[in-house]
């Protein structure tokens, strides 16, 4: 990653993967994008991307309601010095910890999902689906039951660490602030959808990197125009959408090259390329060496499980 904030993103992934804690950073003031490395580290955590949340927000009306709650969250954080527990309109419970720098409310850390009354939550989901006709209640409930679980850690055990994280982010802003303008919270309210759009686009690309991805489909998924999505993506990631998609695909291809015996054509097809020669050119451009050379150099360092024979030699050409 080459990012000085990599430990921060690694910690958030640890909370998710080890403890089942879904962490989302809400930026009320625009403090995250002022540093490119901080923005890069937190981009996957600027919106909730569980399968249930992604499905519910596929409906434009539900998505707008979700965004409208940011102002309510801001107002509540203004009144609370410490953490408070809240429930979103879809019935998911989470702890909210304000992020402050001096007297400025920068954002919040939202940590969940804690399901205290699953039956009431399911009833709320059914009501929401009735109001948002494209949503199917049975599908929503299936995703809720399979992807939303209580964290395997008590809130009292995890909140002190999250409070330290909120303090760390506040201190990070204090170090960055002298070289940047003061965040404008009023203006930020109108741009708060930017974080959601970016994170949803990144998640969509991650989930569909092996298939056909178009800017049109991506924009429709994010409920915005193609031009707006392209502008946000370039501003926040530094590259256009097609380049970003190819970078994600090349990371997948590296895993295939190292951990499988698939030939180049099979790997190319598996990461969304119909033409293996074009795949090899893109791989060389992004990674710096051709895929066959990458496999030759590095595959020998990867254990081959219980297979006692040497791995088959990599193909010499595509």
Automatic annotation (TrEMBL):
<protein>
    <submittedName>
        <fullName>Helix-turn-helix domain-containing protein</fullName>
    </submittedName>
</protein>
<keyword id="KW-0805">Transcription regulation</keyword>
<keyword id="KW-0238">DNA-binding</keyword>
<dbReference type="GO" id="GO:0003700">
    <property type="term" value="F:DNA-binding transcription factor activity"/>
</dbReference>
<dbReference type="Pfam" id="PF10114">
    <property type="entry name" value="PocR"/>
</dbReference>
<dbReference type="InterPro" id="IPR020449">
    <property type="entry name" value="Tscrpt_reg_AraC-type_HTH"/>
</dbReference>
<dbReference type="GO" id="GO:0043565">
    <property type="term" value="F:sequence-specific DNA binding"/>
</dbReference>
<feature type="domain" description="HTH araC/xylS-type">
    <location>
        <begin position="199"/>
        <end position="297"/>
    </location>
</feature>
<dbReference type="Pfam" id="PF12833">
    <property type="entry name" value="HTH_18"/>
</dbReference>
<dbReference type="InterPro" id="IPR009057">
    <property type="entry name" value="Homeodomain-like_sf"/>
</dbReference>
<dbReference type="InterPro" id="IPR018062">
    <property type="entry name" value="HTH_AraC-typ_CS"/>
</dbReference>
<dbReference type="InterPro" id="IPR018060">
    <property type="entry name" value="HTH_AraC"/>
</dbReference>
<keyword id="KW-0804">Transcription</keyword>
<dbReference type="InterPro" id="IPR018771">
    <property type="entry name" value="PocR_dom"/>
</dbReference>
């Amino acid at each position: 990653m080459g990012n000085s904030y990599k430990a921060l993103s690694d910690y958030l992934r640890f909370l998710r993967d080890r403890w089942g804690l879904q962490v989302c950073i809400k930026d009320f003031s625009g403090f995250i994008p002022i540093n490119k490395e901080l923005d890069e580290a937190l981009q996957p955590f600027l919106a909730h991307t569980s399968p249930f949340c992604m499905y519910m927000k596929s409906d434009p009306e539900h998505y707008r309601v979700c965004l409208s709650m940011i102002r309510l969250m801001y107002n509540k954080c203004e009144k609370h010095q410490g953490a408070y527990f809240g429930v979103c309109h879809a019935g998911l419970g989470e702890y909210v910890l304000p992020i402050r720098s001096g007297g400025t409310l920068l954002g919040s850390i939202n940590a969940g999902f804690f399901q205290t009354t699953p039956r009431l939550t399911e009833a709320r989901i059914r009501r929401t689906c009735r109001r948002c006709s494209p949503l199917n209640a049975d599908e929503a409930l299936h995703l809720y039951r399979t992807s939303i679980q209580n964290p395997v850690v008590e809130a009292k055990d995890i909140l002190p660490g999250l409070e330290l994280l909120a303090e760390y982010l506040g201190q990070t802003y204090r170090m960055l602030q002298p070289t940047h303008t003061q965040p404008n919270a009023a203006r930020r309210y109108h741009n708060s959808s930017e974080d959601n759009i970016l994170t949803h686009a990144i998640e969509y690309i991650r989930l569909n990197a092996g298939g056909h991805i178009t800017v049109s489909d991506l924009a429709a998924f994010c409920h915005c125009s193609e031009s707006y999505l392209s502008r946000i993506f370039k501003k926040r990631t530094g590259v256009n959408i097609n380049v970003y998609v190819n970078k994600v695909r090349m990371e997948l291809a590296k895993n295939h090259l190292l951990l499988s015996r698939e030939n180049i054509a099979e790997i190319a097809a598996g990461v969304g390329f119909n033409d293996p020669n074009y795949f090899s050119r893109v791989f060389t451009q992004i990674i710096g060496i051709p895929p066959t050379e990458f496999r030759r150099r590095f595959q020998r360092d990867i254990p081959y499980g219980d297979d006692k024979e040497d791995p088959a030699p990599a193909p010499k050409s595509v």
